[in-house]
Amino acid sequence: MDRFSWSNGLLEINETLVIQQRGVRLYDGDDKAKLDVGVALLSTHRLIWRDVKNHECCIAMPLSQILLFEEQAAGIGKSAKIVIHLQATPANKEPGPYQHSKYSFIKLSFKEHGQIEFYRRLTEEMTRKRWENTPASQILTAGRTRAVGIVGIERKIEEKRKETDKNISEAFEDLSKLMVKAKEMVELSRSIANKIKDKSYLLSMGIADPVTRETHGSGTHYHMQLAKQLDDMLQAPLEERGGMMALTEVYCLVNRARGMELLSPEDLVNACKMFESLKLPLRLRVFDSGVMVVQLQSHSEEEMIASALDNVSDKGSLTAEEFAKLLGLSVLLSKERLLLAEKMGHLCRDDSVEGLRFYPNLF
Amino acid sequence: MHRRGVGAGAIAKKKLAEARYKERGNVLAEDQIVQMSKQLETFKSNLEEFASKHKQEIRKNSQFRVQFQEMCATIGVDPLASGKGFWSEMLGVGDFYYELGVQIIEVCLALKHRNGGLITLDELHQRVLKGRGKYAQDVSQDDLMRAIKKLKVMGSGFGMIPVGGSYLVQSVPAELNMDHTVVLQLAEKKGFVTVSEIKDSLKWEKERACHVLDHLLKEGLAWLDSQAAEEAQYWLPALFSELTSRDVTPEEANQMTP
Rg for chain A (alpha carbons), in Å? Predict the structure, then answer.
């Protein structure tokens, strides 16, 4: 770990990002480095690592420092790793997190996977040695010794991926430029967010309301139209399912039907929130558990509770699974109905390891 | 003698000054809005150009998607907030994740009778890939995690629990607190856990261990093997590997609960 130097993490001119992977912990030889889990970035010139929580903690090492590297498969309770053997520290190396190490190898531990792709890209970059063609201004090259064996073996891969790689680099560069412009737009939008009445513009940009932290959603024309479409689309399915459907069910149903130009989960929630104000015969309802459903307004609460009580009395007692089978409802929703009836005092529960069973409340 | 500040004239003047100030305020805002519209048009055409060149990249390359998402987060934008957003419409980023959301919901629903609504990210990943077929675009675990984060807003209990270097994906609104999570993590290594193990590793009292295990049983997340050699074993179907389990039908599952 004493080969790393502190870095600001910014790429130099001619240096391109190749791949990055989250959830990487560094090891100094066989010991865990005194750093948290972070993001490992591979560029054409360097291996960079940045702490996820503290972005200022960023270290880098020129790829020319790498002698050879190998994969270490995952084990029970252990993540997959890439072991990287390093050349000697150059005299003019900038200071880093470790002044000295007894090891001349490090490990990258991939706690969120991604090691396969990272290894592949590292192999390519070590083969192509692009840092030699376009030396970035602040990169310190630690001598020109090569690991000859690796170069010979991996040349085939280089040729295959040359074209694809060029496209990807270009895409990343274009993306960076686009984001610079996007950032300007976002800042400007935020500054006038309070003054504009039509929030749909903010929604299109994906900007969140600083107060609610939700993306400006409800109340837009788009969501009003959606609400009406949902009303049309859901009448029949709701009838079939006893008047109630979980929002996730609705999400799947609607998006499967659309095929493309799908709704985001937020679009769906925001549209459903408008049912009442648009006087549509549907309602969005949130149970105590947090489960959200769309229900037909005609299926009143009293009816549902009465039907739950009837069924339970009829059978003596019921679990959510049994009730679900009886009515052809999902287990999730039948449970909510039983809970509701219990809340209103019509049912009481017997909660054991064998399951949750409801009985008519005779108290 | 002139007296300043008082009198109808002064008041009227003040009112006029105030009104002018307000007016200017409005004009400024309008100016800003006009400027914004122009900038917006420019930005949209930049985005269109980017899309025409790199739309394929987003769909094919999971690394690119990660980069894209992280950059959006940095500038404070959620590209997946709405299907009506510029990002989703022009780059097709939305459809990719929303469809993935549908697939995730369906896989979780199909397996719920077996694992109680808890599944490893690995298994979810495998099953989603299988469901997508040979010719579908590749989907990474990062993609799954982002799609799952979006599903949370629909209130059906989607969440991720860190366990053994990866995650368990929860798809039911079962209450799982720190105690439950810690026991799940302990069970990860072998797929089951016993009361003694909990007492030894976590230094808990027997009651606390039993309370947690009972809750997991009730929620259908754990199955009890009371005939195990030394001590009752609490198995977590979510952690069964593909090799050691066979698929169980809902009827069989019902018969298995003690």
Answer: 30
- In terms of Cα–Cα distance, which of A355, A353, A275, A352 is closest to A320? A355
b/e burial code for range B70-92 (CB count within 10 A of at least 16 → b): ebbeebbbbbbbbbbbbbbbbbb
Q: CB–CB of B82 and A206 under 8 A?
A: yes
Q: What is the pTM of this model?
A: 0.62
Those residues with Cβ within 8 angstroms of residue A1's Cβ, 6 or more apart along the chain or in another chain: A26, A28, A29, A33, A96, A97, A98, A101, A103, A106
Count Cα neighbours of B212 within 13 Å in the Cβ-side half-sphere. 24
State which residue of chain A sits closest to B58, comparing Cα positions. A171
Per residue in A320-336, pLDDT (tens digit) is: 888 888 887 788 888 88
Give the chain A residue whose CA is nearest to the CA of B71. Answer: A179
Supply the pLDDT for residue B258: 44
Helix (H) or strand (E) holding A363: none
**Residue A256 distance to chain B (closest CA, Å):** 8
For residues A51 and A58, the answer to whether their CB atoms sit within 8 Å is: yes
Residue of B46, B71, B145, B214 lying closest to A112 (CA atoms): B145
For residue A32, list chain B residues with Cβ-Cβ distance below 8 A: none
**How confident is the model at residue A252, as a pLDDT?**
94
DSSP-assigned beta bridge partners for residue A71? A82
Task: Retrieve residue A334's tokens.
Answer: 């039948």
Residue-wise pLDDT for A266-280, tens only, equals 999 999 999 988 889
Rg (C-alpha) for chain B, rounded Å, is: 29
Q: What is the mean pLDDT of residues A275-290?
A: 89
Tokens coding B52: 């025409």
CB contact under 8 A, B84 and A195: no
